[in-house]
Amino acid sequence: MPPSRPNPTDAPPVNRLRVGECVVDVSLREVVRADGTKTRITVKSMAVLLLLAERSGQVVSREALLDSVWAGTLPTDDVVTQAVTLLRKALGDDRDAPAYVETIPKAGYRLLAKVEWQSDAVGAPMLPAARRRPWLFVMLVVLAVIAATWGMLHWRKPSPVSPPRSDAALPVDLPYTLLTARPGPETQPALSPDGALVAYAMPPAESDGAPAIFLQATQPTPPRQLTTPPADHSDHLPRWSPDGRQLMFARIDEAGGCELLLMPASGGATRAVGRCDRLNGRYDWLPDGSGIVAGLKLEGGGPAPLSVLRLDSGQWQPMRYPVGAGEADFDPHFSPDGTRLAFRRGLSHSDLWVMPAAGGAPTRLTRLQGNITGWAWTPDGQTLLLGFHGNPSLLFRHDLASGRTRALGRFPARSLDVAARRGVMVFAVDDAHTAMFRYPLPLRTDANPEALFPSTGDDMLPSPSPDGTLLAFLSDRSREVRLWLGAPGQPGQLRMIEGITPVARHPPQWSDDGRRLLVIGEAAVAGGGHRPQLHEIDVASGRARVLAIADATPYFAQYLPDGRLLLVVDRGAGRLSLWIVASSSPSQVVAVLDDVGEARFDRDSGNLYFVRSGQPGLWRTGLELRAPVQVDPRQPAGYWLRRWGVLDGRPFALRTAAPACLANWHWLGEGGPADPGCLDRERRGVPSLALMASGDGKWLYASMTTGLENSDIGLMDLDALAAAGAATR
Question: Can you give the pTM of this predicted structure?
């Protein structure tokens, strides 16, 4: 008998399913066995479990599972087997003597164990069965959509119930095939010049999680492990030589040291060719195979030009071409004929530029000013393809002859690569879930976090009102990312704000009286892209109005206590500045501070804290923006550059301390209190973007990337894409 879903109006809410002796927390995708063992499963495995539970005792065919769970994708034959294997492992089941999931040869799978929904309350008794509802089917549909979406903002398959965008038609879904579907992360794919093979980084099976380099044909076949990194090392960023005979990759030690190694493409002995401690992004081989070109991290405040490492010397030498102070160029790729070199300029608000292969005056190609997730030349050298992280994430095509940049459709991926001599592209697609939590203050390692508004979508960037009664946050629970308002502890009172498509980068910012919100939203531009705009929301009515800013693109805004606004803006070329402006006229600039990536005004101390765009560390200044003082020269840095905040007048940051803790709390600067330690040792989530403390000092709010880290390698046929007409829209 299938489980009946209790009436959703009953209290408390029900997000737990008992399966035999196991309890499944659906919102967290966590399976708890009778002995207390906890395992978090993938979205796909959870969707399989829910479909089997819906048809408990019945045989569910592989075709039915593929149609429901992998809808909108072109899955490989083994994805169902992989999902069921992971599910059995979490349940503690035995395939040969199953107590939970039985394999029916040539038919499908059947759930043997008794299933029943129960209350979320710890130790609560089973709820009585109620009238059967389509609730579970709706959840399955939502989970199936999530399973076909990746990244922090999941790529969504259009649905008749999806709210239409007011500024443009919904983009098409681009077809692709999954080459891999194993649990765990498969990342950084690189295609051989003929497009027949793909190399990528992946932790070996039954390993400690350190990635190695694997090789696979561009079809669903078993991969072959090429490298075995030493203890406390991991291998990353494979890249094929122009003749396809060699592979270069980066070997990184636990202290962050990096060395470039070279090996035959078929595997074998490796040799070191140079250091890569300052490597910034991906690199490319020189057309003659004599070395590589790459971007290097900024040092000081000077320029960071592209640099060349020759194999015969092992030394980095900067290329000679115009590049300004504070500008960082990275992610370079030579054109297929070797005559031009294109690259990204701007660390967080990038665009593509191009110059002659030997150097010269660069020319700007795109004007997206955003997060480019990867890019590559097409084999004919006439166009560039680039992924762009947004709402939704898109694949763009830039035509060099016309200078036009146009969106082709929804694109779920990052780290794309195109074969030099064949129209095929690979990329990494993520399966992650972002949820919101609040942690009681003062922080302590044994504190229990409280989940906020659990959903099957991504909830992120929570921002508490000054009095702590309301929470503003961003969520795609309605299929598209929107601004939501709700009261913690009252999930039935959620309200979506219409008329704005927010940019998921910073938390909404409250006015001191709690009546207004500042949010960065999107406005459509020619070619299918979007440009950020500053919106002010009236909380009571939900009405939004645009605050126009002349000659700059806004990326962050905060109310100041004297009625002015703090803005972080892009004045062109991806270089950010901090502005203090009049609230009545955001274009009336009172004070300016250049080279500021993130900034937050702290009302407790009266200080303004900020980080630079291209170098580690934290600075402090007053609202006059004069004579900044460096608080910490090293942190935050790199991946954790945006995971920081201010509490009781003192700045703090989070960083990973894996495997003990994925979110380790520490104070910034010298002479501060002892570090409280792990933010959430049990949940093992990774903090996503900014953290905020409530005005009453009782709670720390954070969005966390929860669950297993999973990503697969996808493949797209560019010739088929062009034949279908998508490339010319």
Answer: 0.66
